[in-house]
Amino acid sequence: MSSIKIYDTTLRDGSQAEGISFTVEDKIRIAHKLDELGVHYVEGGWPGSNPRDVDFFEKARRANFSQTRITAFGSTRYPKKKVEDDVVLQALLKTETCAVTLFGKSWDLHVKEALSTSLDENLRMIFESIAYLKKRREEVLFDAEHFFDGYKNNPRYALKAVKEAESAGADWIILCDTNGGSLPHEVRSIFEEVKKSVGVKMGIHAHNDAEVAVANSINAVQAGAEQVQGTINGIGERCGNANLVSIIPNLKIKMGVDCITDEQLQSLKNISAFVDELANKAHWNQQPFVGKSAFAHKGGVHISAVRKNSQTYEHVQPEKVGNHQRILVSDLSGKSNILHKAKEYGLAMDDDDPKVQQILKLLKESENLGFQYEGAEASFDLMMRDALGQKEVFFDFIGFRVIVEKRKEKEDSVSEATVKLRVNGVQEVSAAEGIGPINALDKAIKKALVKFYPELEEVNLCDYKVRILEEKKGTRAKTRVLVESGDRHSKWGTVGVSENIIEASWQALVDSIDYKLNQSR
Description:
alpha/beta; 8-stranded parallel barrel; TIM Barrel; globular; Double Stranded RNA Binding Domain; 521 residues
């Protein structure tokens, strides 16, 4: 148990969760964050199942990852098909990833009911598919789907399935609790039994339908698993997957297992919030290890104790996972909050700097209004620069107007935006039409500024997300807008908040321009 490989499937299994849809750009950004976290494998999707995953693998192939192996996922060949003619296997090969994960049936019920084929044909499907890919790819992983249910129903056949994969040359055998209903003691005993018969490295893939996916994963590690699969924040189909945000610190801190570095572990809270933001989900305050309330203390007895010794009510040091202690009654952690926040975003500040309090006040006021800076790194950078006197002013805002007009019932509406800005004392008025009011506003802003700052020509709006913050207020609710912009070299996120969605969008768009200009000077 000296080291464990972490396999993330947020981009594939996680994106199958109800209400979650990642754009290709979202997936690329998340993949880079997972690389920074030290994740060994990132499963990018199922190529051939949809155009978005095909596009992701094309872009991922051109991207640079320092540690992560991007992995393509697919099924064994179809019954009575030749591997050379199987569309799934051919789509996997087109991704050109070094590692490929194949899933196959190990539960006889699924072979008969879902695949409608014979038990022997399923074994041939496993062997031939893996052997075919192994000749063409460096690493092949086999996900034995529904393994624990299959083993409980027909242990001999379930074991035959994984032995076929091993014989075909699979580098890893992953036992899957696909229905998520097995209990920790079952997972451990079955895993130990199977490990006696399997000579290659083994891993665990657990779902959370019985609320024990994390426990099942840890039990599998104790039984000899060398790889753990899961998702960030446990997102996934039905009740979700094993939560890597809990598994990683349990392995690293509690069990002393080498899976990521201490420095990488400190980014855990950041990536947890980052994925939630791109998934357009509110972050779960009570999430273990990384939630806002995970190390928050309100009761008088608790506060008295943790001020003397934090171990009295904290099971780990919050800083190890990128979190921090919060004292809710007197907010004594205010100064440390801002220092921690600055450190998160790579801004060095001395705790004796009088501007710390000024920035703290700004941050508290902003967050109280609904601003969140995970996924909006550029807006946070600008706020800090402004407080530190390091932000340059490139233009002054005078006003804007947006008109949305629908002339006939069956015609599309027309959006037009007019902006007034002042640059170097010169007033500039610009108008533009767009596909929707925000697109028109974005075009008008750039049109007004590009003659002064030609570098804005290469800035594009990559993504746009809206979240309602006060659902009970209906159409009067406060709205948070998250914008992702980019040029040839990088991408950055900005945020705006207002009861008026156009105003919130304006804030985020202007921050995007400001950030680009501040970075290029």
